[in-house]
Amino acid sequence: MPTVRDVRGMAGDEPITMLTAYDAPTAELAEQAGVDVLLVGDSLGNVVLGHDTTLPVTVEEMHSHTAAVVRGTEEALVVADMPFLSVGVEESESIEHCGRMLKEAGANAVKIESGPHTVELTDRLTDLGIPVMAHLGLTPQHVNRLGYTRQGTSQDAADEIRDLARAHAEAGAFALVLEHVPANLAGAVTDALSIPTIGIGAGPDCDGQVLVVDDAVGLSESVPPFAEAFGDVRSAYTDAIGDYVEAVEDGSFPTEEHSHDESSLDFD
Ligand code: KIV
What are the angstrom distances between the C-alpha of 159 and each of 162, 163, 247? Predict the structure, then answer.
């Protein structure tokens, strides 16, 4: 498994594979399958906790799920996503929240949904030894301002994303997530940076790709147009649960094989 420094050096090299994970068993399976980076995304809110957006996710929830993912891995690179308003309000509070993800939960780095307001913070965190993965394009924490639509589609918006990408790379970010932006913009940003870009809905020219694990394995009810289900875990899951319900109802489970008698017990 690569370190933060390895990932930083992977720009223009082997494609980087990143996948979200929210719990220890998933982290273990993803690590065994050879995923380079595990992102404890704040998509936790929609994917696991049943919220409509990522906005309600708390620092405590991210902390707890990050620690679970760390416990599930031997040596994977684990990146903790910083939830809505946990960074960017007060600098000392931002540093404390990010620091807890490394000091207490055991993450190797943090991801921050980025903008003009996170350039200085990225610099400061990097100086303090907290590696930062930046995130531009569609940033779901800005859903009320941007919606969930494609970003960087006008020349001005594309130029702004490229400028912000450069600014975050110069501030010390070790990698950049580009979400739901045109492939030619992602290609241009990738060419302009010495740090790797990791795309989601950003075309094939990024240095790596990231997907939400439930989308990738086919557990989500529906998959965004830019993602792909590489399995059908949803059917396997519901079939297995259905078989269990049927077996209990028809009395075929449990059998003697699943039970034990204690010979010292006497009920006469
Ligand atoms: O929260 C998340 O899962 C993310 C990825 C989709 C990049 O930010």
Answer: 5, 6, 60
111 - beta bridge partners?
81, 133
Candidate of 38, 66, 101, 111 to mutate for ligand 1, largest count of ligand atoms within 8 Å of Cβ: 111
Domains of the chain: 4-211 (3.20.20.60)
- 119-166 pLDDT, tens digit each: 999 999 999 999 999 999 999 999 999 999 999 999 999 999 999 999
- Burial of 48 (C-beta count, 10 Å sphere; 0-12/13-18/19+): middle
Is 221 annotated as catalytic?
no
What is the atom index within ligand 1 of the atom nearest the CA of 43? 1
Cβ pair 36, 7 in contact under 8 A? yes
Given the residues 75, 179, 228, 256, the one annotated as active site: 179
Nearest-5° Cα angle at 22, 31 to 2: 35
d(CA 24, CA 67): 9
The ligand 1 atom at the shortest distance from the C-alpha of residue 111 is 8
pTM of the predicted model, to two decimals? 0.96
Q: How far apart are CA 25 and CA 195, in angstroms?
A: 30
Residue 37: what residue type?
Answer: V
**CB atoms near residue 265 (< 10 Å):** 6
Question: pLDDT of 29-41, one tens digit each?
Answer: 999 999 999 999 9
